[in-house]
Structure to design on (303 residues):
């Protein structure tokens, strides 16, 4: 089923520093998209008076979190709407992902809220079932990766990675950022290892295919795109790249959750070790999750 995605960036907050850090990033993403920023906080309805189940936020607590979030975004210059949901955070995110362009959460919230749930037992459900791209913002201060000046996208030639590449191209166009497209060849994990005379030939073939894929994805966009083919474990290489760039973009198969990440078998390592925001792009994501980028203001400030 096709869903029409509104130009809305949803950020889940739970009162933790991590969620407010993600909110700062989400606000800037909304600004670059000319999008509405939606601040969503979940609370737990007691099953009987005085009972709070697994110690989720009360409705009053959630209202206070929303109020604090509004204070933090008051001077960003974007339209803001709020949602107070008596629901599980993951369920709320999944429901909103059918109608919005991005869902954003902070990593390692430490409160049992969005961040812990995203990187915990429900990670598979969110990544496999989301209808739009999900963004995980690590504990690195958002100001250190804003504005976005350098984006890295993992590409392995599959259709799903091409969808992620298309999103990365559009993000690079909005931010006027450099885009580095990376293909990793993990020969040590392959049953077949090329002989000395063919090793460079394999790298050259992959590089040629990557350049062709990137050229097609970037057609019609004025961006600074570069291609890199590197030997090594894909997840480890992307995590290493995250220390020097402002955003990672990776695709998922849309089945098996993060275990189905196209760029390696240790997908959780990317989220746990990345020190810059990571956009997880599910298979069902398409261009309808992006509003036309031509009307986006291109103003940037120095870091």
């Amino acid at each position: 089923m096709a869903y029409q995605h509104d130009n809305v960036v949803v950020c889940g907050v739970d009162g933790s520093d991590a969620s407010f850090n993600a909110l700062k990033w989400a606000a800037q993403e909304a600004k670059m998209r000319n999008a509405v920023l939606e601040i969503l906080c979940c609370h737990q309805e007691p099953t009987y008076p005085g009972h709070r189940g697994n110690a989720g936020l009360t409705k009053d607590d959630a209202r206070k979190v929303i109020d604090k979030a509004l204070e933090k975004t008051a001077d960003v210059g974007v339209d803001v709407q709020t949602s107070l949901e008596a629901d599980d955070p993951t369920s709320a995110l999944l429901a909103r992902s059918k109608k919005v362009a991005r869902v954003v959460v902070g990593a390692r919230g430490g409160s049992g809220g969005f961040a812990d749930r995203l990187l915990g037992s429900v990670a598979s459900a969110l990544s496999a079932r989301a209808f739009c791209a999900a963004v995980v913002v690590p504990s690195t201060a958002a100001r250190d990766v804003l504005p976005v000046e350098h984006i890295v996208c993992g590409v392995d030639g599959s259709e799903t990675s091409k969808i992620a590449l298309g999103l990365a191209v559009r993000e690079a166009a909005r931010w006027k950022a450099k885009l580095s497209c990376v293909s990793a060849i993990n020969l040590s994990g392959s049953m077949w290892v090329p002989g000395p005379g063919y090793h460079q030939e394999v790298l050259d073939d992959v590089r040629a295919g990557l350049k062709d894929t990137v050229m097609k994805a970037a057609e019609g966009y004025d961006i600074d795109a570069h291609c890199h083919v590197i030997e090594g474990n894909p997840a480890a290489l992307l995590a290493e790249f995250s220390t020097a760039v402002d955003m990672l973009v990776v695709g998922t198969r849309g089945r098996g959750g993060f275990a189905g990440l196209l760029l390696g078998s240790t997908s959780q390592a990317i989220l746990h070790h990345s020190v810059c925001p990571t956009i997880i792009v599910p298979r069902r994501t398409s261009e309808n999750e992006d509003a036309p980028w031509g009307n986006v203001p291109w103003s940037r400030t120095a870091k």
